[in-house]
Amino acid sequence: MDNYFGFLDYISVAGTLLLSLLIGIYFARKNNTNEDLLVGGRKISSWPVAASIMASYVSAVTVLGFPAEVFGYGVEIFNMGLVALIMFPISVKLFVPVLYPMKLTSIFEYVEHRFKCSTLRKMVCGVYLFEQTVLAGVVLYGPSLVLVTFLGIPNWLSIFGIGLISTLYTSVGGIRAVVWTDAFQAVMMLLGMVAILVKGIVDAGGFSNTFAIAQDNGRLNLFKFNFDIFQRHNFFNFFIGFGFMTLFRSTLHQPQVQRFSSQPTLKEAMNVMYKSIPITFSVKIVGVLTGIALFAVYHSCDPVKFKKIETIDHLVPYFVVNQMASIPGMLGLFTACIFSGVLSSISSIINSLTAVTWTDILSNIPKFAKMDDRGQANVSRVTGLFYGLLSILLAFSAQYMGSVYTASFQAVGATNGVVNGIFMAGMFMPFINKTGAKVGIIVSLTSMLTIGSRNIFSTVLKEAPLPTTIDNCPVEYSSALLNSTLDLSSKSYEIEWPEKIFALSYLMYPIVGATIFIIVATLVSYCSGGFREDQRKCVDDFYLHPFLRSNEIKKSRSEITQCTSPMLSDSQL
């Protein structure tokens, strides 16, 4: 079936891209300083910021991946939403009151202030810059494969078009443009997802029939209560592993720091984080329901086994093209939904990379530090433009890098643990010093990247999806195809030690990485004098969590100054 864009389709896509660009141009005139560009002058309206926080968690990967995950493995993925409902408010209560008074632009400023070490700050900053730059290229490239396969939109057009527009409105419009375009793009994503959900439920025979089919085929089993850190998904891995990551990443991740720092008061900073919770949770519900609906539609004719699509990640566009193309404007709405997911992700990444690069690197170079406010803002605009163009180049390079590039993208998830460990040690463990933290970063990062990369390349360490059939597919397939595909989901492998360590659930990467960091950093700190009373006096209470401040010895300002890095002034402390 040939699928051509009609007038309404072009209006949806062109309108999404043009409005995003115009928002950036509008806010460009309000950005005269880096504080305007990077934290919105600390006075952005709360509701668009809340929607922007949601958009930073929901991308094109979510739109395509959540339904595919439910189709293949059931609704266990919804545990992420349930765990976030618990951990996100705790994270806000724990960390926003600590960080907001510091008036940070980059979260890594805290690392230097706490550990009195600019080298440590640069190490953690370098990890973040590498991770996010690679991620930007992959986020930009991944959806283009779907668009070229099912809608015929050339790779170069989607990569260059989305990349250039997001780069322009982000570099000139700053965080205000990112926040307001995120709010608009969140609406577009939600409209597209709801349209697919409604059509899926209708095609499956109604709401009750949809859930009955999913229940009969084991897709509604939400909880697995067996404790096994090597199992891909179970309740404890979600609660412990993903819960740990959510506890720290919800408020200690650079894009979120910029967003709550854009609020004029601490109360409003906390409220804007709370407002984002129901918005984000609603989108996850829609994603899971869409997966249930699409399973009900294709439960007896799996398009992967039937060789209609190469991977389950193509399920959503396959459904749109085959079931919704005849509805005027639906192809355009779906394309705008995907574009919005990519635009929101890329713009957040570019703006956060700009903030980190300026604050942690360029502002410490005398030539840039001596510039006036407008000159510094222009440097940040050029920096954002650089990262945007770099993302486009990396996206074009991705098609030639094959599995290595995919492996590097997935392996960067292993960096979460070491970053979380740094902030855990900084706020709650005053005995960990800069030497312990440096060694801990190296050991933890090396260990987790090794485990993650080995898992990605392995053809054995994969958990098989739940069973599906092609019993009700058209009779054009052969019995050989039927026999070759029915066994795929039933294969299982017994993995022995030491190979088993590489089968660690990806959900456990953050807490295992943080644990390695804490153990190594504690041992090295002990050996290098971090437990000595004179060294512990060098830790300013201001950078410890309030839970510990009342128990720590109050140091005089002169005692702290004697331990201070030359880069930190007394006013910064």
Summarize the structure.
The protein is an all-alpha fold. The chain has helices at 7-28, 34-39, 46-57, 60-73, 79-99, 109-115, 118-150, 155-203, 207-216, 235-252, 254-261, 266-298, 315-324, 330-360, 366-369, 373-411, 415-428, 434-457, 479-486, 509-527, 533-536, 546-549, 557-563.
Write up what this structure looks like:
The chain has 23 helices and no strands. By secondary structure, the chain is an all-alpha fold. Helix 3 packs across helix 14, helix 5 packs parallel to helix 10 and helix 7 crosses helix 8.
Keywords:
single chain, 573 residues, mainly alpha, 0% strand, globular, disordered C terminus
Question: What is the rounded distance between the termini?
Answer: 66 Å
Helix count, DSSP H or I runs of 4 or more residues: 23
Helix content: 55-70%
Radius of gyration (Å): 24 Å
Strand content: under 5%
Kindly report the average pLDDT value: 82
Element-by-element helix/strand order: HHHHHHHHHHHHHHHHHHHHHHH
List the helices and strands and how they pair.
Elements: H1 7-28, H2 34-39, H3 46-57, H4 60-73, H5 79-99, H6 109-115, H7 118-150, H8 155-203, H9 207-216, H10 235-252, H11 254-261, H12 266-298, H13 315-324, H14 330-360, H15 366-369, H16 373-411, H17 415-428, H18 434-457, H19 479-486, H20 509-527, H21 533-536, H22 546-549, H23 557-563
